[in-house]
Write a sequence for this structure.
């Protein structure tokens, strides 16, 4: 056991939520610069934590998704006992994540009430009134009765320039050419997705406005078919289609983060890639349908949100419960273009 007490942070399961937790770690480091912060995170969000400079050690959770695995959690907690934790910040609201620091006998266990975790969480916060995710997590750095600081800095990730150059070279993104990224996917469900035909039409407008532009379609392997539809709607045989690169499934999340650091602008559904781009301070246009733009907005210096704010939204469902998906289908290309075009004008002016 080290002589210096440590802090444990138990990460959220979603990429965007992990990004939005970074200001909490910044506040903890500011309060105790000498105290190491360990992060316990599921494998899918570990690449995000590697880009957060306040995280000293990152450990992968060995548990299956959704399973209680009480014996495995007890064994893992025994290992944590020897690392000398003074406190633990439990960001997921589930009972099973509250178990870990309790079983590890960490003295202070900070978190929200969640699934009735009395006893497991002994410094309990309550989310009243509801607030957006960054202040929601940042509030854990203070006493439960206090409001979070009003001047919370936006989330920030760190990427090296050489790494970005290397991944761009591998994927055929030429140095010196302007690059705009589209992220047409969303892991949560189809209700968060703007139609591929709309993205394709937007690609045509981008190609017409910005000479020699490349349009990178980003996402996981599950998004490759959606991205291919975008490319086809852009006109695969024309100038706009030739500008579009379907890179879905061709990068790890680590590489996608490095790639987003190169983008001149990003258009994205409400997804992990949106919040990564925002934390890299890229100009972003964020499209919201089934989710609430006030709950998890992009926070880069140049950010625009587009939401029709229909009476039926935000429904927060994976699929439209009414079957029409109006919140995204009726979001016109012209509306999104009106937000993106001023960003691209700045890119165009900056071209040699």
């Amino acid at each position: 056991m080290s002589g210096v007490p440590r802090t444990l942070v138990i990460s959220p399961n979603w990429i965007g939520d992990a990004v939005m937790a970074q200001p909490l770690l910044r506040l903890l480091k500011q309060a105790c610069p000498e105290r190491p912060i360990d992060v316990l995170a599921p494998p899918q969000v570990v690449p995000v934590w590697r880009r957060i400079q306040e995280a000293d050690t990152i450990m992968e959770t060995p548990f299956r998704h959704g399973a209680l695995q009480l014996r495995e959690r007890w064994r893992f907690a025994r290992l944590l006992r020897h690392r000398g934790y003074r406190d633990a910040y439990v960001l997921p609201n589930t009972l099973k994540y509250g178990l870990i620091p309790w079983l590890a006998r960490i003295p202070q266990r900070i978190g929200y009430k969640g699934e009735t975790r009395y006893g497991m969480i002994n410094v309990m916060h309550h989310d009243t009134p509801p607030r957006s995710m960054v202040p929601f997590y940042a509030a854990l750095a203070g006493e439960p009765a206090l409001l979070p600081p009003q001047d919370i800095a936006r989330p920030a990730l760190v990427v090296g320039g050489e790494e970005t150059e290397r991944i761009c070279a591998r994927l055929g993104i030429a140095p010196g050419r302007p690059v705009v990224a589209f992220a047409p996917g969303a892991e949560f469900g189809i209700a968060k997705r703007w139609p591929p035909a709309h993205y394709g039409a937007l690609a045509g407008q981008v190609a017409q406005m910005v000479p020699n532009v490349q349009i990178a379609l980003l996402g996981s392997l599950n998004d490759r078919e959606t991205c291919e539809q975008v490319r086809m709607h852009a006109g695969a045989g024309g100038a706009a289609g030739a500008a579009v690169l379907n890179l879905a499934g061709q990068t790890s999340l680590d590489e996608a983060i490095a790639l987003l650091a190169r983008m001149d602008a990003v258009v994205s559904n409400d997804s992990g890639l949106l919040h990564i781009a925002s934390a890299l301070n890229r100009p972003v246009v964020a499209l919201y349908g089934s989710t609430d733009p006030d709950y998890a907005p992009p926070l880069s210096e140049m950010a625009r949100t587009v939401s029709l704010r229909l009476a039926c939204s935000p429904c927060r469902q994976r699929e439209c419960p009414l079957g029409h998906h109006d919140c995204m289908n009726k979001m016109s290309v012209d509306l999104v273009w009106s937000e993106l075009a001023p960003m691209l004008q700045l890119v165009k002016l900056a071209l040699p």
